[in-house]
Task: structure prediction
Amino acid sequence: MTHPIVKTVSGLVYEGDIDSAERALAVIADQEGDRALARIIEEMPPRDLVAILREHDASRMSIVGELISPAQFAAAVALERAYNEKNHDRLRGMVNAVVFADEDRSDDYIVALGAGESGLNALCDYFSDRHEELERFFRNGSFNPHEGEEVDGIPVSNMDLQLGELDEDTARDVVPLREVQDRDWHELAWRLRCDHYEVFRDMMEMLRARHHRAAAMPPPPKPKSLGLGLDDDDDEDDVL
Result:
């Protein structure tokens, strides 16, 4: 039987009162405990979870972000992509709020994202403005543009990715996690590269494919001139 708070929260979300929806869930956690709330979150539809997570104030912890299951998180992220937000700021906020809420569970959420095409596409969206920096990190083990080899464009071949998994020796060349633990894109990139290489490899292949598709597209047509059809002599006469 569905807990009555699910309907209450859904109504608040529908009305756009996200703060009240979160407070209602927090009351359940206080009264019945986190385990009870985790079971309730399992009953909530993904659209309500997305609404709460994408509107959440990133300056504080999200109770939904702390207790959502990896499978529900992956479903919520897939639904978030349907909003087609151009800069993906809210997607990044959602991912950061959940993946870094509890370090002991970070790997579970990353695995869930990497398990399907929708999650991988979401990761590509997350890093869409950081592709060249990811390529540099992949090649040099550092985000510092002044260290290692210069990155000259996006590779056409993915052979380097097929051979790029770290071993005991090459792992020593990568910046330590403690130096990039920002609970943001640097840390997520590190965790993908060092701890979840298959997910990182698949994401990088998709990012490269996106880049080359975009580069192959013809430029947009120039807008038609709005001139009045005057020749040069007429223009000069007008000036005089």
Remarks:
- The chain has a mean pLDDT of 89.
- Residues 197-216 form the longest helix (20 residues).
- The CA atoms of residues 101 and 126 lie 17 Å apart.
- The chain is about 60% helix and 0% strand.
